Amino acid sequence: MTGLSVSNLSYSYGAKQALKDVSFDVPSGQFCALLGPNGAGKSTLFGLLTRLLTSTHGKISVTGHDMVRKPRLALAELGIVFQQTTLDLDLSVRQNLTYFAALHGISGKDATRRIDAALDKLSMLDRAGEKARALNGGHRRRTEIARALIHDPSVLLLDEPTVGLDAAARAAITRHVHELCDDGTTVLWATHLTDEVYPDDHLVILHRAQVLASGRCADICNETPLQEKFLSMTATPA
Amino acid sequence: MSPYLTSLFAIVMREALRFIHQRERFIAALVRPLVWLLVFAAGFRAALGLSIIPPYQTYITYETYIVPGLCGMIMLFNGMQSSLSLVYDREMGSMKLLLTSPLPRWWLLFCKLVGSTVISILQVYAFLAIAAAFGIPLPLAGYIAVLPALVVAGVMLGALGLVLSSFIKQLENFAGVMNFVIFPMFFLSSALYPLWKMAESSELLYSICAINPFTHAVELIRFALYLEFNGTALIWTLLAAIAFTALALWGYTPSRNGPGKKG
Hints:
The complex is a heterodimer. By secondary structure, chain A is of the alpha/beta class.
């Protein structure tokens, strides 16, 4: 079954084409890395996948729900971690998660149970009472990932979630999110850092608004280190 | 609880928490009308003679006249403050969280509107309590009768805030909003002077004042405070509320790429 499917998607900001005929599928329970240099169109693609933007060209479906025809069903299946932090820094970790749960119609004991489970999964349960402002960058990110899991989404979208983190925090979060796929969650992870992609991951390389390659990372690289392969494929400036 | 009520409660509570956290905002919201009431009105009462006009049955002091206008001013500024918060939310990214919720967008915006209206009504009552302490007489039942009028006025001005937030792309542009929206709306209304006074000075200005929805919101509040019903003001304020809400919904549709553009 397909977790996330994008077909023939195009988008323009006036005369500037940000995405051109983009198509790829992410199988259910698979980690998919969306790799592209700055300006490749990753954030535009995220805008479209999360319905912050809409396009009349192309189709997006989340676990079979069409984003245009059934946006609420599609959004309900999505867990989203934006590039920019979206925590309310004046609220505690738990208050932030409770607010988000309510936006998905979850409240009371059910919300508490889900919040505890999500925080526990990201090893953040003992920090539930702390103000978001008091957390370091890595813990804020973990909180946001935990928040994105509260409603048990089938597909998790993360837009460059490790920006600004140190190497240890980056590696830990990358590993955590890879492990989420073991439970059947489909992950789309946008990045421009090749060391966050594992050989067995599904890989989509986006460059100058177009998909250059889509498939298993090890197959695309064919023994060449990913960094080298990526640089050679994206040698023309974005 | 239904998902709709759960989200409504959460959004209103978040607005309330944010308001409580920003103590300076609450103090500023109270001090601003009090300065007008205690300083401006004291200076102006000698210069401005008021005749008996509905809903007043007798001669009134200038302080008494401007109380409904200052209630309107609190709501006008609160609507703008909510709008500012929305633009800030968009710049900080937390607006994305709201707009990617699976609940209908119109409902989420309605929840924001309810939150903003509740906060502004609480501020108005705090102001009325202080005004009463300074000896501004109002009929006791007027404090209850004014509530529906405050709801309608609050929704209208909150919706105006939503419209502005959907069109304003950066926080820096808010100075322009103050100059071109708030001040003209406030000064070209019956908040500080009765419209017949304005008609004596300029017919054109009088006509502008007469179609200004803020004038009607203030008159709706004024009549309700004195236990009278002003049907014209209610219809005008409701029509403006509907128009602003429709514009806000349009402004926030994803195909317009308004609030999500910076993503």
